């Protein structure tokens, strides 16, 4: 519900971002949000709160976990923010490399002449060469 001061209740704020209200409550419980409170302890989200929700939504899309988002948003220290951003960048680079390798494997499987992909020597070699699997296989 919209108030005369332009703030929104938890339901309306959540709807604006395509979220369920419990998500905003959870983000508050982990220290990402701090909406004001009115009678009956009802949350009110003003423009700054809505902007912060937007930042968290984009951070989640970039793969940030809630702990790292809190670290990034709770400090005014530029060096700590850059460290959090570098750590997330490194994680994204690793995930992109993993996704590219997976895409290559799927593309090969789609074009492979073997009826059963597990019989393909190239597929078998890729499985054996994968860093997370190499030492676990015979």
Structural commentary:
This protein has a domain at 1-64: Orthogonal Bundle (Multidrug-efflux Transporter Regulator, Chain: A, Domain 2), CATH 1.10.1660.10. It is mainly alpha-helical. It is 60% helix and 4% strand. α1 (10-16) packs across α2 (21-29) and α4 packs antiparallel against α5 (78-111).
Give a summary of the structure in a few sentences.
With 138 residues, the protein is mainly alpha-helical.
Helicity range: 55-70%
**Spans where pLDDT lies below 50 across 5 or more residues:** none
Order of helical and strand elements: HHEEHHHH
CATH class of the domain at 1-64: Mainly Alpha
Provide keyphrases for this structure.
single chain; 138 residues; mainly alpha; Multidrug-efflux Transporter Regulator, Chain: A, Domain 2; two-stranded antiparallel sheet; 6 helices
């Amino acid at each position: 519900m919209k108030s005369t001061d332009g703030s929104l209740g938890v339901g309306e704020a959540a709807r604006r971002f395509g979220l369920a209200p419990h998500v905003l409550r959870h983000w508050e419980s982990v220290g990402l949000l701090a909406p004001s409170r009115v009678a009956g302890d009802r949350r009110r989200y003003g423009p700054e709160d809505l902007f912060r929700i937007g930042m968290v939504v984009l951070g989640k899309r970039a793969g940030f976990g809630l702990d790292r988002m809190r670290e990034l948003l709770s400090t005014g220290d530029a060096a700590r923010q850059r460290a959090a951003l570098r750590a997330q960048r490194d994680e994204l680079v690793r995930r992109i490399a993993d996704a590219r390798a997976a895409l290559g494997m799927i593309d090969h499987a789609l074009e492979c002449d073997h009826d059963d992909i597990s019989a393909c020597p190239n597929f078998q070699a890729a499985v054996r060469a994968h860093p997370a699997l190499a030492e676990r296989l015979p």
